[in-house]
Amino acid sequence: MQNSQSQGVSVRRISVASNPIIAFWQTVVGKKIVMAVTGLVLIGFVIGHVAGNLKIFIGPEAINAYSRFLREVGQPELEYEQVLWIVRSVLLACVALHVTAAVQLSKLSLGARPVDYKEKKNLATNMSAMTMRIGGLFLFGYIVFHVLHLTLGKVGYDPGEFHHLSVYQNVVNAFHHQPIAIFYIIAMGALFLHLDHGIWSMLQTLGFSNRKNQATLKGIGRLIAFLIFAGFISVPVAVMTGVIH
Amino acid sequence: MKFALKVWRQHDANAAGSFVDYEIDGITADMSFLEMIDALNEKLLLKGEDPITFEHDCREGICGSCGFLINGLAHGGQKATTVCQLAMRFFKDGDTIVLEPWRAAAFPIVRDLMVDRSAFDRIIQSGGYISVPTGGAPEASAILVGKDKADVAFDAAACIGCGACVAACPNTSAMLFTAAKMTHLNSLPQGQPQRDARTLGMITTMEQEGFGNCTNHGECEMVCPKEIPLEFIGKMNRDLIRAAMNGQTEANVRVDANGKMVD
Question: Complex ipTM, two decimals?
Fold first, then answer.
């Protein structure tokens, strides 16, 4: 890796992998592009998720019907929950690739400056960009909790509070536990930071950002991240303030 | 003008380094930063001490030899300026100025403020060239290059390889440098025959040299004395997708004595 080890090492033309997909994935840039594409899929999912959540403000029947729709869509040609499990599989694969690439790339970056600066100033970066790794780790933990909580009802409920497919009542009961509601709001703050940098970063990595549109794209990314944040926290806030009961 | 300096002194790559305080008087506002260190070094030599080692050559901002962190900013933080072109008028009389070398595993310290940037040379070796027939100079209009392509290639070719992008990057990534070199040749007709091999080779070699991975902080763009934009990194990424689509698996990379690829 370092120059001290460069004795006997030369640059030569060889086959770096048996096929181009492996060659692509082996490179740092290939992994970075995988992070951008899987990130794009996950941003799409999050936007769909927040849109679905807002149905709770129409009333119990609207959100419960939406929950049944997600399971029954495609019937009778497709099985019950078939589309749902296809979507879940794609999302799980995206998370797995996103996290694998992030871990491998972070290892490189964290080892690339063994002696740190005593004095270093930054001119362009911000809190969102600086917290991508730690914030991503936190969001991963949050997602595990969230699935165990609102999807499966295994944690965070008093006995008898959770009933499968009674989405409206499950949400109201969930956020009556104030520490849990606050935890969700904090997690959505972390999601805002992750997306604030992530949306523009995805566009930059995929080559859509340039000198002229960089500031505009960063602004749009931040706006989308904020709308997602506001949409998500509106539900626990509405339950805590009694708007939804 | 009078300044207090805190300078990183390190005898060689393996020695422990530390900051040493110096005072320098009689500096004029139109002296360059390197001339200020020259003046200090003369003083040190007269006292029988080791002068501060720093790299320099053209002192016109075009060779890419000089560069270190001044008060935490690569090249001192003036827009499109190398250390040699940085005038002392940007500092206030009596200022304390901290000087620190580029810090990266891939850039071992040679001495004091001078680092070994051979890692950049090996990235260039893996793809920073074109194959051309030897012989007389070709007819100027034999290969037509569109104005738009020529402009992009010229902007990218402005990179002087000083290493400020790596130094400023929170990830210690060399992507701005590599992207500039790649964009230069990949934009031109002369660069097309080796395009995909160049892309795969330079990116792979960059990682082999021990640079980190870019997370789009944008620090590199801010300190680049040649104002290389981040968008070239996006072009490099698209070129890698192109290489994969074209089935590229062969590339110039670092191999050991047995011909095996180095991690």
Answer: 0.94
Q: Is B96 on the interface with A (CB under 8 A)?
A: no
* CA distance to A138, A156, A187, A236, per residue, from A232 (Å): 17, 19, 10, 8
B224 to chain A, any CB pair closer than 8 A? The answer is no
Coil, helix or strand for B173?
Answer: strand
Distance from CA of A181 to the nearest CA of B (A): 32
Contact B176, B229 (CB under 8 A): no
In a domain, B261, yes or no: no
Of B111, B132, B159, the residue that ends a domain is B111
- Which chain B residues are closer than 8 Å to A105 by Cβ? 213, 215
Instruction: Please tell me whether the peptide bond between A76 and the residue prior to it is cis, using omega within 30 degrees of 0.
Output: yes
Residue A2: per-residue pLDDT: 45
Find, among B19, B181, B173, B7, the residue nearest to B105 by Cα. Answer: B173
- At position B192, the amino acid (one-letter code) is Q
Averaged pLDDT, B245-252: 97
User: Per DSSP, what are the bridge partners of residue B97?
Assistant: B5
Q: In what order do the strands lie in the sheet with B69-70?
A: B18-24, B3-9, B96-100, B69-70, B73-74
β-pair partners for B8: B19
DSSP one-letter code for B5: E
Q: Are residues B152 and B235 in the same domain?
A: yes
Please name the CATH architecture into which domain A17-119+128-240 falls. Answer: Up-down Bundle (1.20)
CATH number, domain with residue B47: 3.10.20.30
Task: Assess if residue B85 is contained within a domain.
Answer: yes
Q: What is the pLDDT of residues B60-101, one digit of tens each?
A: 999 999 999 999 999 999 999 999 999 999 999 999 999 999
- Token pair, residue A39, equals 């990130």
